Amino acid sequence: MTKNGSKSDRIIDAAVKVIADHGYHGAKVTAIAKEAGVADGTIYLYFKNKEHLLIELFQTKMGLFIDYSKQQIERETTAGDKLYQLIESHLKQLSADYDLAVVTQIELRQSNLALRQKISEVLKPYLNLIDAVVQHGIDTGEFDRDLDYRLARQMIFGTIDEVVTSWMASGFKYDLMSTLPKVHHMLKKGLA
Q1: In this protein, which residues make up the domain named HTH tetR-type (predicted)?
Q2: How many domains would you assign to the chain?
């Protein structure tokens, strides 16, 4: 739940749907308000403008995304299993919410540079989570001790990101989760 309670949650959820359907630039505040079941002006009680709403949307959804991923990863002891949980939680969360997948994979990337920079800040805790998995693997000897963890992070995030983007580009024609074993195998071998 966001800091302003259920009404702001409804607005954020409505924004995800409207932006997924119409694109960020095509999404009108009026349509978001209608989807949320609130008056147009109510949105401005919670968010300064549409850009602020997009940033809050990403912060809220990414916070939940990271919390879930972290819980799954912390249950495991080996780096390989932590990597598996990282990949699984990423794929699982986006395959369960097509609208969120569209917003995070397409719409956020089409925003202006200043907005993308703000969104990059929100993404840092997720990248730190990837770094922790890689560092654990290096420390335990499961992953190559000479790995550059920054490059390893880019490889992991980039691979998962591209798998999700390809799934979306296919029109969601296959089960995204079916890619999990192969993605895990490939990444684990690449890190070992």
Answers
A1: 5-65
A2: 1
